[in-house]
Amino acid sequence: MEQLPLYISIVFAMATLACVAFFYKASNCSTPTLLLLLIWIVVQAMISSTGFYTITDTFPPRFLLLVLPPLLVVTGLFVTPNGRRYLDNLDVKTLTLLHTVRIAVEIVLYWLFLHHAVPQLMTFEGRNVDILAGITAPIIYYFAFVRQQFVKQLLLWWNIACIGALLNIVVNAVLSAPFSFQQFAFDQPNIAILYFPFSSLPSCVVPLVLLSHLATIRQLLLSKNAPSK
């Protein structure tokens, strides 16, 4: 990957830390939550710095070490009693505001495209509409929790739609990466996620965004922490 301007890494690092801070606050300032997230980021930084993820011809792909542990944790939260209690105590208001970090992430992806580190299809000029989730998050927050004019169903469908936008970019990003199953962007593959700090996107930011949506949907379906409360 070509040498990137320092501001790109700084902005992305700040967006990642903001995502962690939002989730930490949503967890009622749970110290174990914060420590787990920070340790995970540091561990992935150490692994990424060795060039471990840049070797893409292995089976199974080394990339799984970035995404599989967070997905197992998310799954564990939903299938265990203690995990479900944890999810049901998360603050939906803060989880909604967490999605504003997606604006900064999408700007960083556009900068990475300009420097040939990701393909155009991963940006808002391509197939990526995820920035809309970030733009609408404060609007949803205002009407749902400040004005209390949104019914629960609208907040529910907003979260579902944003999951769709997230899954869209995740699929395109994975299929654009230089793995054996690559399908898109052969002229400019998605290589940024193989390097730190951008490896934190699939290993930390995306899992937290997904978990925030899923936890909110769970609470809404259980009629807990609805906007009218």
β-strand amount: under 5%
Largest sheet: number of strands, sense, barrel closure: none
Give, in order, the helices and strands.
HHHHHHHHH
The chain-level structural class is mainly alpha
Q: Which spans have pLDDT < 50 for at least 5 consecutive residues?
A: 225-229
Question: Rg to the nearest angstrom?
Answer: 18 Å
- Overall average pLDDT: 93
Whole-number total of structural domains: 1
Quaternary structure type: single chain
- End-to-end CA span: 49 Å
Shape: globular
What is the number of beta strands? 0
- Helical residues, percent: 55-70%
User: What is the tally of helical segments?
Assistant: 9
Spell out the key features of this protein.
single chain; mainly alpha; 9 helices; disordered C terminus; 229 residues
